[in-house]
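In the previous chapter we treated chains in isolation. Here, by contrast, the input contains three separate entities that must be folded as one system, with a combined length of 1096 residues.
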Amino acid sequence: MSFFLETLVGGLLAGVMYSLVALGFVLIYKASRVFNFAQGSLLLFAALAFVTLTEHGVNLWLAGLITLALLILIALAIERAVLRPLTGRSDLTLFMATLGLSYVIEGVAQTVMGSDVHALDLGIPDVPMQVGPIQISVFDLTAAAISGVLVLALSLLFSRTRLGVSLRAVADDPLAAQSIGIKLDTVWSVVWAVAGFVGLVAGLLWGSRQGVQFSLSLVVLKALPVLIIGGFTSITGAIVGGLIVGASESLAELYLGPLIGGGLSAWFAYVLALAFLLVRPSGLFGERAIERV
Amino acid sequence: MPSSDGIDTLALVSSRGFVAPVTWRPNWLVLALLAVTFGLVPLVADDYWLNAVLIPFLVLSLAGLGLNLLTGFAGQASLGAGALMSVGAFASYNFLLRAPLLPLPVSLALGGATAAGLGLVFGLPSLRIKGFYLLASTLGAQFFVEWAFTKYEWFSNHASSGSISAPRLALFGCDLSSPLGRYLLTATIVALLTWVAANLVRSQTGRTWTAIRDMDTAAAVIGIPVVGAKLSAFVVSSFILGIAGALWAFTYLGTADAHSFDIDRSFQILFIIIIGGLGSLAGSYIGAAFILVLPIFLDRFALALFGGMIGTGLLENLQKIIFGSLIIFLLAREPRGLAAYLARLSRWLLPRRA
Amino acid sequence: MNFSSLRVRSVAACAGLALAAAFAASPAAAADAPEQFWPLLTYRVGPFAPSGIPIWAGVLDTIRYYNEVKGGIDGVKIVTDECETGWLAEKGVECYERLKGGRTGLPIPFVEPESAPISYALTDKIVADKIPMITINYGRTEATDGSVFKWNFPIILTFYSEASGIINFIAQKEGGFDKLKGKKIATLYNDSAYGRETLAPLALLSKKYGFQDIEIPNPNPGNEQSAQWQQIREIKPDWVFLRGWGIQTPVAIKTAARIGYPVDRIIGDVWSGSEDDVIPAGAAGKGFLAATTNAAGTDFAIHRELKKYILDKGKSDLKDLSRFGTVYYNAGIVHAIVTIEAIRAAHQKFGNRPITGVEGQYGFEHLNIDQKRIEELGVTGLLQPLKLSCSDHEGGGALRIQQWDGQKWTPVSDWIQADRETLRPLIDEKASAYAKEKGVTPRDCSKED
């Protein structure tokens, strides 16, 4: 029984890491209705930039600030160069554009910062801790705590501040929001900047977990099932979706794996997402889309 | 209001591409291309051109063609092109291996048919989910197929490398394993399937596809059989992709394993049709040529101009940046892709008399 | 259609010229003395670049040393051309086709793709083109049987030999082969063709020695391995054999630490045992073991020479000089030396001149580097004695185990020879299956040797 609990907890905590990545997507989707595939490359860029700076002796916090500033600049550039020319286009077109964008960012990141692997040490120990009958990793717990704080902050941002309310208005109906004087550009820029910050945190935690190198950008492929299950527009959904994906992946690998040969974490999340799609297309917490003819 | 991206404006011009819209007879350009393909090339091309440029160009064009039918013409998003190619390759391999009495074209066709069957299964979710979400289900299929072929050794005849390799390619007793033989085999199959696709898009089926791409709810209202159209798009597209996969394994690389057709391959095929032109048959060819030729061209160009000064790594990254930027640019400014630019160029070069 | 219009003709002419210029063959090197062409298929970008870059540096530095200090190979200087493959099959094929004629049209003496997918793609082409392909420490194990695979050389260590070497090391640590009985040895393998290659030999060896052989697949890319390591925690194996590549290795090490599995019981394979594999794991990597066929470090005669003539003169291919002496850099040195010796073997029969493919095949098949020669070459400790033949294209089959202490790799064992006799029947079986599938008539090695 304790093994089941351990796997469950391990899976849940892995799921939290997925949620972190998904959060960035949710923010951007809420504001601009685009699934930003380039989020993965941005994560890689953030981690690489941070690590390059710290390796050259820059203080940890300063490096973080500089990276954040860089990310915000990039986000603004993306908004101008990619999103504006493509306003009003279909979801698919925007997705394909972000696909192209991810290639550009990866190419630039590798040209400027090289393709070496780097270790990223944030000072968080990655050792197991005994809690009752089960073992939990200190790192995973810290990551979960950080995510919790992040989610809380974001929720407060969106429900209590003026900016947050404006964002929700823009997400609901851009035209109406504009007509009452909300500046779309400002709102979008702020959201992309916040998403950049979330991307930085996610990039640092993932980089710390597995080292900073090229395949860091592949985490984005796990974000899609998380978003489908949780809903593209809900922050809570990103967390819940991540937990569900993480837990079910681990448990499936453990119990189903031996039956069919193992290694099914490659596709299990997607199958789960597909099941959700067929039953509840808008995800657990997403908004129901109204189709217009 | 229907999504106003440039794809819908294709509805009017898409089925025209380069081939004459009015009749089904191939026009002079197509005849010239066929003459070059089957007449000139075999005489002048060397090993390098055949093995490294022309054969992959033909195979990628075919794959692009297949995906274009599904995504460009019928509007069904898919990132599962790699999985379908994979199924075609492995299925053809198994037919060739386990039923050696079947002639080569039959095994290839059966491989394509297996892929088509799988495509039908992938197509079923499209009846309930659309657009962007459909991508997720095709992605899932992509990962699943890759996993299945890695996991179950039966598919690769228990080879320790897990890869399948080209069995003896022979047709009517002639050995086709030389570069020229493989080239002619590929060119014949690609030409044939292109002709089939060209006819399809101009037929009732093709028009139904573009109707559901642009306004599928309205289409259903006016009585167009949406279910049949979607599924037929998946089936035909998957058949072509399956054959492209088999050709990739047998005539181009000579080998394939589950990872030859991974998500990067799916992205590559999608890039081909975006760059070449969604909803344009010629666009599949142009996109494939571009994707194949640009890296080689950059390499040679840099070598000629800068000697060995620019590192190969830098060139590689440069390619990535160029591809990505081009995709963004084309999607924003000219969604009909390079095909549209080429069409404009050809009109400028050879103006029709007033 | 007005074909005679000036616009058409001028544009067509310009386009034609530009295209022709771009694809024109590189100008043939008009050297005074004929030079040996050495093709380099490399990957300097992409996920595996960190592993590749030091290898090419090792090769290029060694070639440069031979050219400038030793006057070439028996007086024949070496000239190289590089082509970026990204480790991918299709790029590898394009590079091969582009380089296979060298600079003068004569077939190159060998090709070393340094990538499993490329090697599979080239398997048939090299036979048709009569160019030997060498795959050092990877590649098809069944190519050891040169009677079927005339042009395929998996030199130094195949995956089967590696599996056996690891088991022999574990037996050493446990106090003898009889102590292996009942022990649990888990293999955490990259779920790909590369990773699966060791499953067959391990199954055979587990029957022979009575240990429990547990297989746990690790799907690509392997950046999340909690489930796999939870399984390991449950099973509590005595040893874990890690068959990783790329990011799997550091993630595995970190995850092991996270669930509390002792890292000094994990043995990585030759492609999981470089500095780049352990540095990202940080402190968790201390004590990690890995197999290697060439030690790390700079305390070798060849390094002293390279430092004196190449590094200190700023002529090294390395951009980051701290990589001098790393595992993959030293691997590059070994690759170059082995190839140079093979070319030398060909010179003995064909004369001191540039070698073509067929002659290269002779050279590799008659490669014989004994301990005395190893000392002459200055690579004692970096290279094991190699003797190839028609029926044995591997030639070596020994490895060493090294341990990471947080700063560098230190050998913790001597050369451990694989149990090649036990594994040979497996290899022969696979080779004949291949021969049957492809319609290859095996050569008669007794006539050739």
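Chain C touches chain B through 52 residues (CB under 8 Å). Residues 3-157+298-387 of chain C form a domain with the Rossmann fold fold (CATH 3.40.50.2300). Compare these points with the single-chain example from earlier in the chapter.
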